[in-house]
Design a protein that fits this description.
heterodimer, A: 0% strand, B: 268 residues, mainly alpha, MetI-like fold, 12 helices, membrane (chain A), transmembrane helix (chain A), MetI-like (chain A), cell membrane (chain A)
Chain lengths: 280, 268
């Protein structure tokens, strides 16, 4: 290993400069801008007082709730999928299985969510099948509620969760599972004592990637959600486009950001997650 | 009796992962197939099952100037973002994996680059929109491209970094011992070995940019329209035949990028 030398270091800082500058200019500087706007005009806390009024508190909690709920569903589905692909799938089909499950990651989420309108609408595929086979007399209202929005979210974010979790699942030594089985452990025990602790870093990474984006999503609730249930992104977009009340929207964004980071931090505080994350 | 029930339940549990995979594939591909099927209907408001097969709406989409302009805009922004984002990602990956900077600096740089992953997109997008107005950059192509570069940077960086970390450092050391300077080592050793990762990064960054909606929504202003913005605007009006054909075309563009990426092989 070469000894660190000053010109090398200088060069490395120069290389670091371009990506770092971009990330600072478009990540950190905008957040500071928002923070300054949120406390103005005149250093009053009025914007924050308004954000914490019951009207907006509801939207904040609803967004966080949707984020937590959808992330949990994605993880619950991703566990059996990644387990099967990593440990059950015949070798020569493994790559194609992984590619098939993660392909939608490449596709446009506005288009994919729009496709669900045709599945769930009154004249859509599901209702056609249910009425056509005589299971139902008339069509159901399946669209524009929490369920349809949840389906849309899982549809978009499941591939991200699967891809991230797969790395952990692949590293899990299958011999450990076999050993536990030989010693008489049930499937449930194998899952709780071996699979879960060893794949926790993957689950944590997946949560980190999708949770904030689900809680702050705009397009999916607009296309598939109920018009009555307002998520934060719609409020911010409205403030940005229609009104000029940027201070309020900035305060709302900031409180929301703190809530998202706070809930992520809460997860990281649990001793078990922390112990597993330290291995990274 | 009890043990038989448990045994049956366990056998069921043993099959569960395979069943979930099968159901997930149905779940993931049904909507795409349904849109593809409906796009072939000649009717303005298609019904299931469709009455006849026709490519009428594809012709309509491909002769629609608004849509074609949006498509060209998206492709252009996508190409710039893909190449620029990959170059920046390579720099980021080098700094995180191989540079001589102190551990703390490297970790901090990684966290700052990863910021768009754990900060809600709407907050970042709104912040960039306000910051852009503040510094007088306003709205349009430049803010959109910068926003896209920022958004793809963590993906390109970590994709390339994963491969970079696997590279055998002794190869570069050997080249240096034989008298190659840093630039030659980078050009003849590092880049060729990273090539599949760089290509994968270009393609994935292109797909991310081509499909990006929310950041563009905040930064585009009235002069720039990308395909996702155009489609979102049409979705709000209602599900129409035009939208079905347009959706299929958008899916095909990204699927081609994905298909090319999946054929990339690692050398050695």
């Amino acid at each position: 290993m070469s000894v660190a030398n000053t010109p090398g270091r200088l060069r490395d800082w120069l290389v670091a400069g371009s990506p770092l500058l971009l990330a600072l200019a478009l990540g950190v500087f905008p957040l500071l801008t928002l923070f300054v706007e949120s406390i103005g005009p005149g250093l009053g806390g009025e914007n924050y007082a308004e954000v914490l009024s019951p009207l907006y508190r509801g939207a904040l909690l609803y967004s966080i709730g949707v984020g937590v709920g959808v992330t949990a569903v994605c993880l619950a589905v991703a566990y059996p999928i990644t387990y099967w692909i990593a440990h059950r799938c015949p070798d020569r089909y493994r790559l194609i299985a992984l590619v098939s499950v993660t392909l939608p990651l490449w596709l446009n989420y506005v288009v994919l969510n729009y496709a669900w309108v045709w599945i769930l609408a009154r004249g859509g595929v599901v209702n056609r099948i249910l009425v056509g086979t005589g299971l139902l007399d008339s069509s159901l209202d399946l669209l524009y509620n929490n369920i349809s929005m949840g389906i849309g979210f899982v549809y978009i974010y499941l591939p991200y969760v699967v891809l991230t979790m797969y790395v952990s699942m692949e590293r899990l030594d299958y011999q450990l599972i076999e050993a536990a089985r030989d010693l008489g452990a049930s499937d449930v025990r194998v899952f709780l004592d071996i699979v879960l602790p060893r794949t926790l870093p993957g689950a944590a990474a997946a949560t980190l990637i999708v949770y904030a984006r689900i809680a702050g999503a705009f397009a999916t609730p607009e296309i598939l959600g109920s018009p009555g249930n307002v998520m934060i992104a719609r409020l911010v977009v409205q403030a940005f486009r229609q009104y000029t009340n940027y201070g309020f929207a900035a305060a709302l964004s900031f409180v929301f950001l703190l809530l998202v980071l706070g809930t992520l931090g809460l997860g990281a505080l649990s001793p078990r997650v922390r112990r597993e994350l330290r291995q990274w | 009796m009890v043990s038989r029930v448990t045994r049956l339940a366990e056998r069921g549990a043993g099959r569960l992962p395979g069943i979930v995979v099968a159901l997930t594939l149905v779940f993931l591909y049904t909507p795409v197939l349904v849109i593809g099927y409906l796009s072939l209907s000649p009717a303005g408001q298609p019904t299931i099952p469709i009455d006849a097969f026709s490519l009428r709406w594809y012709t309509a989409v491909l002769t629609d100037t608004r849509f074609i302009r949006a498509l060209l805009t998206s492709l252009g922004i996508g190409v710039v973002t893909a190449t620029g984002g990959t170059a920046l990602g390579l720099a980021g990956a080098y700094v995180i994996v191989r540079s001589q900077l102190p551990q703390l600096a490297r970790r901090s740089i990684a966290v700052i680059i990863a910021l768009p992953l754990f900060v809600p997109t709407v907050v970042v997008a709104f912040g960039i929109g306000r910051a852009s107005a503040l510094v007088g950059l306003g709205y349009g192509y430049l803010p959109v491209i910068l926003g896209h570069l920022f958004w793809v940077l963590p993906f390109t960086t970590f994709l390339i970094a994963a491969r970079y970390a696997e590279l055998d450092d002794r190869l570069s050391a050997a080249a240096r011992d034989l008298g190659a300077d840093d630039r030659t080592v980078f050009r003849t050793i590092t880049v060729p070995l990273l090539w599949p990762a760089l290509m994968a990064s270009v393609l994935f960054a292109f797909a991310l940019s081509f499909n990006e909606f929310l950041i563009t929504f905040f930064l585009a202003g009235s002069s720039v329209t990308t395909v996702p913005l155009e489609i979102f605007g049409k979705v709000r009006i209602g599900a129409t035949a035009f939208l079905n054909a347009a959706s299929v075309l958008v899916i095909v563009v990204s699927a081609v990028a994905a298909g090319v990426a999946s054929t990339l092989r690692r050398p050695v």
